[in-house]
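Suppose you are handed a protein chain with no further information: no name, no annotation, nothing but its sequence. What can you learn? This example shows the usual starting point.
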Amino acid sequence: MSGAPRTPKIPYGGDYNPEQWPEEVADADHRLFTKAGIDTLTVGVFAWSLLQPTEDTYDFTTLDRTLDRAAAEGRQVVLATGTAALPPWLALAYPEVNRTDFEGRRHGYGQRHNFCPSSPAYRRLSTALAGRLARRYAAHPALLAWHINNEYGGACYCARCADAFRVWLRERHGTLDALNDAWWTTFWSHRYTDWTQIEPPSALTEHWRGPDHTAFQGITLDYQRFMTDALLGCFVAEKEAIRAHSTNTPVTTNFMGMYRPSDYHRWAPHLDFASWDSYPPLDAPPTWPALAHDLMRGLKDGAPFWLMEQTPSTTACRDVNPLRRPGELRLASWQAVAHGADAVLYFQMRASRGACEKYHGAVIGHAGRDDTRVFREVADLGAELEAAGTVTLGARTPARTALLFDWDSWWALEMSDGPSRLVTYVDVVHAYYRAARVAGADVDVVPVTADLSGYDVVLAPALHLVKGEVAERLEAVAERGGTVLTTFLSGRGDEHDRAFLTDVPGPLGPLMGVRVDEWDTRPADVTHPVRLGDLDSAARLVFEIVIPRGAEPVGTYTSDFYAGTPAVTRNRFGGRGGEGWYVATHLDEAGTEWVVRRILDRHGLVGPYAAHAGVETATRVAPNGDRLLFLLNHSTQTRELSAHAAATDLLTGKRVEREDPLVLDPLGVAVLRLE
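A reasonable first move is to predict its three-dimensional structure. Written in structure tokens, the prediction is:
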């Protein structure tokens, strides 16, 4: 089976924990589910200790009752394997299953996501549970999808992980000579002469001041990759156990968007469909979750994903937990659909009575009321999604702009002792993504291995590591007339994070037409102006001193000893008018927009609504060819627009002509089916 489940509408609902509630509460909950238009429940996520109270006994009574009731009431179930939190008996019977942390401490039982991915006991028992669930429920009429584990993450540094790491290294590098060369172990007398000498990089070995401060980037980079693969191995093992009994039902696990510890591109081929949990930072602009949505869509070559979790009101486990204002839930949900979500689900359906998430937002609060503002908003959105039917399902985004997202570059950049520890990879990537989205361009967020032949513009900010043939494939974009942009701190290292023995930006140099002679890094409160046409941008953090090798200056520094030297350059490349743009410093928001908009405008990719502050646009094309334009007003002011095309608003049924006025209420949404 490949692809998301086929449904008659956008699945709507979320995490429900019937094991926490007596039957009379469940009865009330289901009545409220019907009232709110809830048709999909995710169950069993943390039910291991209930499903398997001892190693030799299983109890499926609660799941039987829940799935049977869902089927009787016309609801669907995303059934989780429950393996993300260990039952106490398992951790006590098999102490090896408890993780050893970065400081070298073997943990006792507690919390969740608390298992060692190299533990044979965990692998044996988790796959056994997944297999039993699949055998019991594979043919159940309520079953919609399998949900393996939950929000995989974290790391272990135990002896078993050390052994597994050595095996992984043998497979990756082949010989110790190759490994020593990759890690540059002639530095500080580190040359290994036996595989058993290699230890995981931790606070007890190569690190100081935390996980980002390592003496050897090569070994730490490889351990990040290894731990991604170790956790992925647990997922694959459970999936195989499920597939032994359930061959057709799609399988997924819920990701966490821009989550640094795990390289989701390595996971993507093993998922039937991508899904993720959206909890943006408190101060995040709307483009932050949009970037994460597009990253999730890019995992499966543009196929729709599922919004597996979001809060209907507040989050928990933060110092402060602001409430979503009236209208924000609807706007965030339609934003997800606009960027490719084919499901809108919540955590959680009913608020837990105890423990650390009892104050996390829920569709149904502790009092079980249906007259709260949150419940009314959830119910209204449920009715809206019901009315939309199948129109958005399976729709894809026809983007002509790509943004490269690379976990290896993320890891390598932020663990490097220089040039600056103040630069964060995702902030740089988001800055260029934001500029493109504000200009009205649809953007595919893709790995460096993606096929780039369909894009006019490729943005590759902070491409710190240049691996494989990515430089040649970027040149191919420009050779056919496209534009490629990269930035400071790009082209610095190969796949092992070894510096290129050539001028910066390494293999990207010919396309960019520059060499970086020196670089200056300063504290966050130090800015230098960069002149871009009539605009003065306040640049900060990194100031690379560029010498053109065919490129022409587009922006220049106007202070310090490098005043008058290029800060932004453009290089003509190939015979069809292609260009390579190099941005040598961390421009402010206005400067980044200035650069990106000129690139997009060259290819006719600046949208007609780009002048309207706070208005986000996104396009999807349905399987039947219908072109859907989403207009999302993130401001608290009414926005008066023109339709720019004959269309029908699917949310109101109103038809508009090309020049008709189109009014978006504060936090308003329109979904236009273009004619």
